[in-house]
Amino acid sequence: MSYIDTLIESFGPHIRPSHPTLYDALHVCTGLYPIRSYLEIGVHDGASLLAVLRSAPELSRVVLCDVERTIGDLPTRAEYHGSLVFLHGDSYDLIPQIHETFDLILVDGDHSYTYALADIRNSVPLLAPCGQLVIDDSTRPEIRSAIKWLEANAPVVHFFDMTDEQDSVSIYRRKPS
Ligand SMILES: C[S@@+](CC[C@H](N)C(=O)[O-])C[C@H]1O[C@@H](n2cnc3c(N)ncnc32)[C@H](O)[C@@H]1O
Q1: Where does residue 165 rank: exposed (0-12), middle (13-18), buried (19+ CB within 10 A)?
Q2: Residue 51 — φ and ψ, nearest 5°?
Q3: What's phi and psi for 173, nearest 5 deg?
Q4: 43 lines ligand 1 (CB under 6 A)
Q5: How far is CA 160 from CA 32, 74, 124, 138, 155, in A?
Q6: Which of 68, 107, 61, 102 is nearest to 87 (CA)?
Q7: Which structural domains are found in the chain, ordered by start?
Q8: Angle between helices 141-153 and 113-123 (to 10 degrees)
Q9: Using CA atoms, how far apart are residues 88 and 108, in angstroms rounded to an integer?
Q10: H helices within 97-168, ranges in order?
């Protein structure tokens, strides 16, 4: 049974998994290093958020960004009682306004090249030393091109990929400073 199956089992079918391998990848990330802070760009109805809330017991700070807010009271139902900020609007404008760092960042918003590149570029300075950057749908040409920028210009190392018949998830880690 995949990790998302266990989440659906406990949270019901209103959680619409868009990419189950993403949730398995997040589950792996949270198991490898303690995750105290999490930034998610592209929240939808909260399946990826739930995967992190349920598998990062040390989590105390969550920042979410989406043009729509559709997660309802999911964080409370997931028994998350730490701090949570929802940046409601366009990641292109909102992510550069963040002035804190995160142990884990998921980029899963607008999948056009312009937005994927902006979200990735804007996320890099927000990665804590050794922080993990998770990029969904990483074999799509637009995302792949944005990742080329990341690999050529950012202080990160490729960590691992997870692939299924739908697409891949790619994980990078910030180099220790
Ligand atoms: C693929 S869904 C995210 C799925 C979610 N991470 C999950 O796995 O459950 C993409 C989300 O990005 C949001 N989005 C699209 N363009 C955006 C933008 N410019 N800024 C912020 N969010 C955006 C959409 O509203 C949508 O909820």
Answers
A1: exposed
A2: -60, -40
A3: -125, 140
A4: yes
A5: 12, 29, 17, 12, 16
A6: 68
A7: 3-174 (3.40.50.150)
A8: 30
A9: 15
A10: 113-123, 141-153
For residue 80, give the 3-state DSSP assignment.
coil
For residue 20, the SS3 value is helix
pLDDT digits (tens, 9 = 90+) for 66-125: 999 988 888 998 899 999 999 999 999 999 999 999 999 999 999 999 999 999 999 999
- Which amino acid residue places its CA nearest to atom 27 of ligand 1? 44
DSSP structural state of residue 138? T
pTM of the model: 0.94
Instruction: Give the model confidence (pLDDT) of 136-163 as tens digits.
Output: 999 999 999 999 999 999 999 999 999 9
Q: Which of 48, 66, 74, 113 is the pocket-test mutation for ligand 1 (most atoms within 8 Å of CB)?
A: 66
Query: Which strands make up the sheet holding 61-66, listed edge to edge?
Result: 83-88, 61-66, 37-41, 102-107, 127-136, 168-174, 156-163
Q: Of all helices (H) and strands (E), which one includes residue 140?
A: none
